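User: You have something folded?
Assistant:
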Amino acid sequence: MSLGVPSNGAATTPIKRVIWDLTYACPLRCVHCYSEAGRRPAMTLDRDAMARVAAIIVTTKPERISFSGGEPLLAPWWREAARSMFEAGTPVTLFTSGWLMDDAIAADLGRHIASVAVSVDGATADVHDAIRGRPGSFDRAMSALDHLDRHKRRQLAAGERCYEFGVDCTVTRSGFADLGRLVEELTGRFPAIDFVRFGAAIPEGLAQEDSFVERELLTEVELEALGGATADLDARSLNAAEVSVTDVRYFLPTSPLAEEGAGIIHIEPDGQVRACTNYEAKVGNILDEPLDVLWQRALAWRSDPFVAGQLASIETLADWARVVRVLDRRYGSESDKLRIARRGRPTVAGVGARADDLPHEFVASSPTIAANIPMLTTRVDPVGEPA
């Protein structure tokens, strides 16, 4: 989602939503990853620091908070953080790959999480696993949905509260086919599923790079086709789940609707606050400075003449990718710039791999997928690789 520059003035723009990346550890290596999770230090806070961040977030009284990452379930204290938000009356949405899900985690989610979104980015295991960068990830996602579905049905049968849950599908060219089939499978297999949401990849993180833009970012024609498929996709649902398609062009900084995102603040795992959720620029650490100071600094960054000029030049997703590349390389930290410079090439011997160099089970039997997946960096963060 894009953060627009508020027309009503920075000082009067309240924080409405918090995105908190709990960790950059991740078991997957998604080709479009917005945070490059699993390819960088996890940066997970200890429990004391987490409690401080949670307490600060609660004081802002946001309308909602998103637990993201990385894989947020790899943060050892995610339950405590969720409980803090729940007790403060702030609804939490948790975004997960599903890799770690089991019955116990599903039950824990049911206690304090309002919504659980599992990422499924293709209608088949071949497609999903190629996009998500790890064999078996589709089966793990389906298993996660099964755990969530069974727990929710038990809770509802007992008259108890539970989360809503469903699927977020980030649509790339490789994953564009058979979306209707995916709707049928999900709604037929999981009776209690609440939503299936589709939206094109946004050009940030790894998705900003030329290789991804050229091969995987949807074109204007493809965006129109995806938006035009909304009614057909909804008609394929076999239960009452809400099936929707979000036109990500509404998130373009030049969109009339961009201002709706002006109240979002994004906190990285180590407490650094982003100037804007789509870009690497940081304005300070929530553990070191008052949040209201950081917030005003973030709003001021968005109004900087150079930044505003770049954002004003955006008309398409490809334009947006260009601007993200410019701003990240200008305003990212030194460690950000080093990480960005390493994209697309190995950092140690044997680390880099193209899709057609990976094991057969990774790219399955599809030459289209092999051709469309850009260079992957497969360096493993031990924290992100559960046994």
User: Anything to note?
Assistant: DSSP finds 15 helices and twelve strands in the chain. The longest helix spans residues 137-157.
